[in-house]
Design brief:
about 575 residues; alpha+beta; Hint_dom_N; 2 domains; Hint_dom_sf; developmental protein; Endonuclease - Pi-scei, Chain A, domain 1; about 30% strand; Hedgehog_Hint; 17 helices
Length: about 575
């Protein structure tokens, strides 16, 4: 049992129904809380972890970590962000002003620019209510209170009639404006501190987030030192002592500042989240309650929608893009085999035969006709484009031609990348097995080995390469996988110098007498392709239809050579 293995204290547990009851319940946007009165009456079942959920709901175990750094200048900016996280979009400035004890809000429940919040979530499962209409009369029904109150609503909505407005306001206050159709469960830690204490510089905020993220991910950083000159100079424990910390879920005995600083305690707290979970409300999917009203009384479909628009302040829609992407991914996985899925639905480019940049990465491209330089997204690049790269001999930026793509797949969703933030504000996003130049001698190493404090290189307005310190390395989810190969074997992506190559490491020959760099090994491996390029032959450049990796690279990866990185 988890309790015995991790020594989780067994306290009187809140009822299992209370844990999972938010999904399928009404939600009041004005108070940012679940509604007091139930819309549905449904049978309840328990999962293998003892969590009670509606019988018609789906319970999916997940392992996701999310981190947020929020600071809002006013209530309007907080409201806009909060509505987006609730999967609700307003086409006009809403009348809603949501205030609450959440990220970016102070202790008096007003958003503030003087306080910054770091929120870390460990998601253990997701509860999805699904399409309730399929389950009506099959264990799911509307409550008598809901049917009765829908029947009492006026058949038309007149915003100029105080009595009419009051009727709908009472209805929404009782049942909510929306229905919660999905939510995550697990635990969260929110660290709040004053802006003055963290420091006003972007670097200070990024460094604080980096250290706290490392701690939350279970790294032993209780002795980590911050950069001298920041307003919170000292170690992690010093920072935590000057912050307020709020916990959700997990063993209450472990809900203390010391847990954040010590990896063994953090590991125990995370393990306790399946025993003592909490519903996480930072991100949820909401559906307008008007659909449920229309099912009870179809004549009041437009009426309830008009009331929602007026009381909330404009047209609104549910953001369905994320759900559509999830459904599309699941459908592909059901229709095609595992081997094909690995090519078309890459989850981690390190596990595929190469490493890459996402679709959104930007490079500088020179127009071949007029010489003008413009920015171009990775997804728009073509073989023959001249992109900015680095001339090692002159130590300055030059333009180098793309001769081929090692990996190219624009339709791949939910790919895990690393985002490396530098002290000058530049950020590069790339996969963990991609090579990037670091240190005084511009040594090419795997991006996953880059640590805070190391030196990467950016290009300035005069096309000079300048060293910049790494402030943070975060895991992010992006779309697309692209790996262009240039004549010089490198390119400048998002204003940061990177290699064209991946999955290679330095190798020592002759018992240590000869050492060849990863960049040199990879560059040599592409000699045949450069020869074909010089001959101006075009047939070899393209990746065949239905494939995402160049055949030559696919062939090379079959050889388990000693210099290939795991």
């Amino acid at each position: 049992m988890l309790q015995e293995k991790f020594e989780i204290a067994m306290e009187p547990r809140e009822t299992a129904f209370d844990i999972g009851s938010l999904v399928g319940q009404g939600y009041n946007i004005l108070t940012d809380r679940s509604a007091a009165t139930q819309v549905f009456k449904f049978d309840v079942t328990k999962t293998q972890y003892g969590i009670a959920i509606p019988k018609c709901a789906k319970f999916e175990k997940v392992q996701q970590t999310r981190s947020y750094m929020d600071q809002f200048e006013n209530d309007e900016s907080y409201t806009e962000s909060r509505l987006k996280n609730l999967n609700v979009s307003m086409d006009a400035k809403p009348k809603v002003l949501m205030t609450g004890h959440r990220a970016g809000c102070n202790r008096n429940n007003y958003s503030t620019s003087s306080e910054v919040s770091f929120l870390f979530e460990q998601r253990m499962f997701e509860i999805k209510f699904g399409n309730y209409e399929e389950y009506l009369d099959k264990g799911v029904t509307f409550t008598k209170d809901f049917r009765s109150d829908v029947g009492k609503l006026p058949c038309t909505y007149d915003k100029n009639d105080p009595s009419c407005r009051s009727s709908f306001e009472r209805f929404f206050n009782r049942f909510g404006h929306f229905l919660v159709s999905s939510a995550y469960g697990g635990g969260s830690v929110e660290v709040k501190c004053s802006r003055e204490m963290v420091g006003s510089a972007t670097a200070s905020l990024a460094e604080a987030k980096a250290v706290l993220t490392e701690a939350f991910e279970g790294l032993d950083v209780h002795k980590t030192e911050f950069t001298a000159g920041t307003s919170f100079f000292g170690n992690l424990n010093t920072l935590l002592k000057r912050c307020s910390i709020f916990w959700k879920g997990g063993d209450t005995i472990l809900r203390e500042k010391e847990t954040i600083a010590y990896k063994e305690k953090m590991k125990k707290w995370k393990a306790s989240l399946l025993v003592k979970p909490a519903i996480l409300t930072s991100e949820m999917t909401l559906e307008p309650i008007s659909a449920a009203v229309a099912h009870v009384d179809p004549k009041k479909d437009k009426t309830i929608y008009d009331a929602l628009k007026d009381l909330l302040g404009g047209e609104f829609k549910v953001l369905e893009e994320k759900e559509e992407q999830k459904r599309a991914t699941e459908a592909r996985a059901n229709k095609i085999g595992e081997a094909t899925r690995r090519k078309e639905t890459v989850q981690d480019p390190n596990e595929s035969e190469g490493a890459c940049f996402p679709s959104s990465s930007v490079v500088n491209v020179r127009n071949l006709k007029d010489g003008a330089v413009k920015q171009k997204k990775m997804v728009k690049l073509e073989v023959g484009d001249k992109v900015m790269g680095w001339d090692e001999k002159r130590n300055r930026a030059i333009f180098t031609e793309i001769i081929m793509f090692a990996h190219r797949a624009s339709g791949v969703m939910d790919v895990q990348y690393l985002k490396i933030a530098l002290e000058d504000g530049n950020k590069i996003t790339l996969s963990g097995n991609h090579l990037v130049m670091v240190g005084k001698h511009k040594k090419a190493i795997l991006a996953r080995k880059v640590k805070r404090g190391e030196i990467l290189f950016t290009v300035d307005e005069n096309r000079k390469i300048s060293p910049k310190k790494v402030l943070a390395v975060d895991k992010v989810i992006e779309q697309g996988v692209f790996c262009p190969i240039t004549v010089h074997g490198n390119l400048i992506v998002d204003n940061v110098l990177a290699s064209c190559y991946a999955s290679v490491q330095d190798h020592v020959f002759l018992e240590g007498l000869v050492k060849i760099s990863a960049q040199s090994i990879a560059h040599f491996g592409l000699v045949p392709m450069r020869a074909l390029h010089k001959l101006r032959l075009k047939w070899w450049r393209k990746i065949p239809n239905g494939q995402t990796i160049h055949p030559y690279l696919h062939w090379l990866c079959k050889f388990k050579l000693p210099f290939m990185a795991n």
